[in-house]
Every structure is written in C-alpha cells, then in structure tokens.
Amino acid sequence: MSAEIEPFARLAVALAIGLLVGIERGWQRRESQEGQRVAGLRTFALIGLVGGVVGFMSQDGGYWLIGLVFIGLAMASATAYVVTTRAGHDYGITSETAAMATYLFAALAGVGQMALASAAAIVMALLLGYKERLHGLLDAVRRQELTAGLKFLLISVVLLPILPDRGYGPWDALNPYVIWLMVVLIAGISFLGYIAIRVFGASRGIIFGGLFGGMASSTATTLAFARIGAREPVLSPVLAAGILLACAAMIARMMVVATLIHAPLFELLWLPALLLLGATLAPVGFYLMSGLSRKPADAGESLLRNPMELKSALLFGALLAAVMLLGKALSEWAGDAGLWALAAASGLADVDAITLSLARMSAQDVALRVASVGIVIAAGANSLVKGGMALSIGGRSLGLRVMLPLAAGSLLALSAAVVLYLSGSPS
C-alpha cells in the first residue's frame, strides 16, 4: 500500500470498527425510546473515527495521547451511566465498555495494526450479538461442570508450567512434566467427551451416548450399557451398537494420542487400527436396524459423570508413572517380550497409559516396530476385556454381539502388527 493511501485506509478501518459495533448496539437497543440509549450508531462511529485519528497522531511514540483521550472517554461513559441509572434506565455497563473497547481497537488501527484491530472488533461484535445464547449457556451449566472446568485449568495452566522437564529416578525414566502433560491430555479428551454428551442430551439416546462416552471412557460406557442390558435384554442390539461405537471411539483416540506423541508411529499403526476399527463397526448398522425402535431413558444419564475429579487425574498420573518405570525396566531386563507383557497387562485396565508410555519411549530408545506391536496388544487386550464385561454383566444376548466383532478385530489387528514387525521396516 502506498504511503499516500495508507493513512486514509487506517482511518477507514477505524471508522468501520465504530460502525460495526454501533450497528450491533443500535440493533440491540432498536426498541428503546430516543434519549434512553447511552450510545448509538453515530456515537460509536465517531468514537471509532476519533480513535483512528488519535492512533495515527500517536504513531511516532506519543502514546500518552491515546491514554489521555481514553481517560476522557471513560469519564464520559461513567457520567452517562450514572445519569441513565438515576433516570431509572439501568442497562448495565456493556455499551460503555464496548465504547471504550471500540476506541482502543480504532486507535490500534490508527497506528497501523489494521488486521489485528479488525479481528478484535469482529470478535467483540460477535460476543455482543450472542448475549442470549451466552446467558442461556450459563443457565445450562451445572455447578459441577463449572468446577470441573476450573480444575482442568488448574492442572493445565497453573500446575503444568511449573513442573521440571527432566528425568528422575532409575534410568531417568520419570519425567514430571511429561507425566503431567499426559494427564492433562487425557483429562482434556475426557472433558470434551463429557461436554459432548451434555450438548446432545440424554434424549439422543444410546448412539450419541456410546460414541461420545467412548471419548471419555469406553470401559465405563461398556459397564453402563451392560447394566442396562441386564435390566432390559430386549435392547441388546442397540446397546451392543452403542458399546461398539464407544470401542471405536477408543481406537480413534488411541491413534490420535500415539500420533500426537510420536508421528512416525502412524505408519505402523494405521493398518492394525483400521482392521480393528472395521471389525468393530461392521455389525453396528445391522444392530441399529434391528433394535433402534426403543431407547432406555437412563442410557445417557448413566454416562454423565464428572470427568474432572482430581483424584482420578492423580490416579492416572500414578498409573502412567508406574507404567513408564516398568516399561523402562522390562526393556532393560527382558527386551521386547517384557514390554509386550507389560502392554498386555496394562491393556486389561487402561489403554491410554501404555499408549502414552510406548509412544514416548518410541521417540527415545525403543524401536517403532516394538512400540507399535505393544500398543496393538494393549488395544486388543482392552477390547477383549470389554467383550467379557458385556458378556458377564449384560448377558449372553448382549455379550456375544459385542465379543465376536471385538475378538475378530483384535485377532486381525494383532496379525497385521506382527506382519509389519517381521517386515523390519521402519525401525
């Protein structure tokens, strides 16, 4: 942009920012009588233009002028708020705050940061325009969910940055930062799964419950659905579909986690994971067609458990630390077979911890082929456990529908992993 045109462009962006916010504020107060609006379209446009001019005049370092005019605008806004409040028209301070923000964004455009100023103004306009939806969201949020979100911020934003990023203990196998980063990762995925269930609601039934419940915990989902199946065997087909969808979500989560930790693992995991996923999802359509006509009312509610209990996060961290230490020890003492034995044992209870550990180790001193086979072993063992859970708790009708595809998928996935391991590439 030429030097002659740029000043006009800056002022044009500043004016556009004022007009944008003014249009939104004017529309929100369109039914108010004349004199009851603190600021309308023209006022916001003028604020934007003044901000642009002040910013342009301050571009050589005289930023004190921006602050001085801002103080004057703040005093004017405060005075207008007091006057309208005394007149019995208490509308809050949103418009006054928007006016001051509009001035700052316009000043930002005036000093040359036009893209940043425009983006900030658009975001502000969206926030102002979504007032009803945002307030509705607050009404819908439960106290335990707000607490869960704050706990997640605690473990991710507060605790994670202060942990040392270095190895401790035998073989330097325990890295506090890495362990807690994995806790944050799994907790975040679980929390998203919980929110997804809340957004879709229990009325959407078993299908969404299974799919999004599997994001949080496919084992917990299997247990919940198996209990429903024990009470109402007639729902076995659709419950089996829900469990298999949860297992499919677990497989996808396993792939995402492993790839995020060490991307080269994808090359060795995609085929076994695809076979396991394909076998798991193969009968779902048939199950749905034969059993979707009825839905138990408690299917969704049984999954709505707070996923951010700090006790659970700490237990997972302890499990992950133990798996990392045992993995390193078995790798030193027993080689590949020791790691695979650990993967099978860990997979009986949880896939995430062993997946995270093996993915991390594959980025250091464990061969990719060894780590990939271990991850597949853990996934297969976990799938068989969930099949056994469905059979023992939900009964034969539900259990066989779940066990057969999971067993077939585990066999296919492990066979593919072994073939890739014997092929010797990559290492």
Automatic annotation (TrEMBL):
Q: Where is the MgtC/SapB/SrpB/YhiD N-terminal domain?
A: 11-135
Q: Which InterPro entries match?
A: DUF4010, MgtC_SapB_SrpB_YhiD_N
* Assigned keywords, A-Z: Membrane, Transmembrane, Transmembrane helix
So where does this one cross the membrane? 39-57, 63-83, 103-128, 148-165, 177-200, 206-226, 238-263, 269-292, 313-331, 337-359, 366-384, 404-422
Domain DUF4010: start-end pairs:
184-394
Q: What is this protein called?
A: DUF4010 domain-containing protein
To which species is this protein native?
A: Wenzhouxiangella sediminis
